[in-house]
UniProtKB/TrEMBL annotation:
ATP binds at L42, R43, G84, K87, T88, T89, E150, D151, F152, R193, Y203, R240. SUPFAM superfamilies: P-loop containing nucleoside triphosphate hydrolases (SSF52540), Winged helix' DNA-binding domain (SSF46785). This is Holliday junction branch migration complex subunit RuvB. GO terms for molecular function: DNA helicase activity; hydrolase activity. Has 3 domains, the large (RuvB-L) and small ATPase (RuvB-S) domains and the C-terminal head (RuvB-H) domain. The head domain binds DNA, while the ATPase domains jointly bind ATP, ADP or are empty depending on the state of the subunit in the translocation cycle. During a single DNA translocation step the structure of each domain remains the same, but their relative positions change. It comes from the Bacteria. It comes from Streptomyces polyrhachis. Belongs to the RuvB family. Pfam families: AAA_lid_4 (PF17864), RuvB_N (PF05496), WHD_RuvB (PF05491). The RuvA-RuvB-RuvC complex processes Holliday junction (HJ) DNA during genetic recombination and DNA repair, while the RuvA-RuvB complex plays an important role in the rescue of blocked DNA replication forks via replication fork reversal (RFR). RuvA specifically binds to HJ cruciform DNA, conferring on it an open structure. The RuvB hexamer acts as an ATP-dependent pump, pulling dsDNA into and through the RuvAB complex. RuvB forms 2 homohexamers on either side of HJ DNA bound by 1 or 2 RuvA tetramers; 4 subunits per hexamer contact DNA at a time. Mg(2+) binds at T88. Its EC number is 3.6.4.-.
């Protein structure tokens, strides 16, 4: 593989390009520097090792096998889904399965067409270009990418104004693997140029248990099935979070026990780190408590809710809310945020008569 450190950014290979105000959270799905280093050691090297995402794995395996049998470069691949589900890992597996080097960069790093032209012109035949957070690429670079993907050619503009000249530059066949956490922001002309599109789903607890057992073996951590199940149940359906929790439980087991991870020990360790049995952390519970205890379950505006928990509006909206909504604990409505009956039950509170979300849960439209 060929790697250009200048293209990684501060997070290293595999780090999410999107600035995440919750990146330091134990249950945050964005990667930090420590995660990037550990993930490199824990990543599966081929599709057979990759856990979960059965449908995407099967489809991608067919695409890669067919390309190898034809002796051709694989079609361009677009992977979408939440952070931490394995998009970077699959991009590296694409390169490994095709026996090709991989170049890694990100959308935010490509702000000018010249940046993209420099990367494309240095590609070798068959090389895999992994473009993380592809939806954040600048528009001029995006338009250049259309021609590069379809015709393996770019036009380099020399000069300015009326005297500017377009010099065509032929590119060797290559495979672009694009990753995005927000597929809806991709313009149709770009999305249509990918030969294969795979959507990464959140993992079931049983799949996360397999991920944890595999990682525990690589990290030389003794863990029993009940301990793995306890960690998996608090991992929010995300392998990156599961691996992070495993490392923190390992630390607790090493310092305060005999090093073996059991169900009871995992529960005690994650209590120390304020991750409850449903995967909620301090921020998540603070949002729910404010919504329930200060505002009677809502509806309440996002800005008011953010002030009540002492956080920025963006932090509440982008870091806490997605998981709370997915878990059915909070709903976004035209009038504001509303707690559901499950939220009252999770915090062990009784909804007052007439409170929003009390009684039978209604169907609420999205904001």
């Amino acid at each position: 593989m060929t790697w250009d450190d200048a293209e990684y950014g501060a997070g290293g290979p595999g780090a999410e390009a999107t600035a995440d105000p919750g990146a330091s959270r134990l249950v945050g799905a964005a990667a930090d520097g420590e995660d990037a280093a550990v993930e490199a050691a824990l990543r599966p090297k081929d599709l057979a090792e990759f856990v979960g995402q059965e449908r995407v794995r099967e489809q991608l395996d067919l695409v890669l096998r067919a390309a190898r049998q034809r002796g051709a470069t694989a079609d361009h691949v677009l992977l979408s889904g939440a952070p931490g589900l394995g998009k970077t890992t699959l991009a590296m597996i694409v390169a490994a399965e095709m026996g090709a080097p991989i170049r890694i960069t990100s959308g935010p790093a490509i702000q000018h067409a010249g940046d993209l032209a420099a990367i494309l012109s240095s590609l070798q035949e068959g090389e895999v270009l992994f473009l993380d957070e592809i939806h954040r690429m600048s528009r001029p670079a995006e338009e250049m990418l259309y021609m590069a993907m379809e015709d393996f050619r770019v036009d380099v503009i020399v000069g300015k104004g009326p005297g500017a000249t377009a010099i065509p530059l032929e590119l060797p066949p290559f495979t672009l693997v694009g990753a995005t956490t927000r597929a809806g922001l991709l313009p149709p002309p770009l999305r249509d140029r990918f030969g294969f599109t795979g959507h990464m789903e959140f993992y079931a607890p049983q799949e996360l248990e397999r991920v944890i057992h595999r990682s525990a073996g690589l990290l030389d951590v003794s863990i029993d099935p009940a301990g793995a199940a306890e960690i998996a149940g608090r991992s929010r359906g995300t392998p990156r979070i599961a691996n992070r929790l495993l490392r923190r439980v390992r630390d607790y087991a090493q310092v305060r026990a005999d090093g073996a991870v059991t169900e009871e020990l995992a529960g005690r360790a994650l209590e120390v780190y304020e991750v409850d049995d449903r995967g909620l952390d301090r921020l998540d519970r603070a949002v729910l408590r404010a919504l329930l205890q200060l505002f009677g379950g809502g509806p309440v505006g996002l800005s008011t809710l953010a002030v009540a928990v002492g956080e920025e509006r963006e932090t509440v909206e982008e870091v806490a809310e997605p998981f709370l909504v997915r878990e059915g604990l909070l709903a976004r409505t035209p009038r504001g945020r509303v707690a559901t009956p499950a939220a009252w039950a999770h915090l062990g509170l009784t909804a007052p008569q007439g409170a929003a979300g009390a009684g039978r849960q209604a169907t609420l439209p999205d904001a």
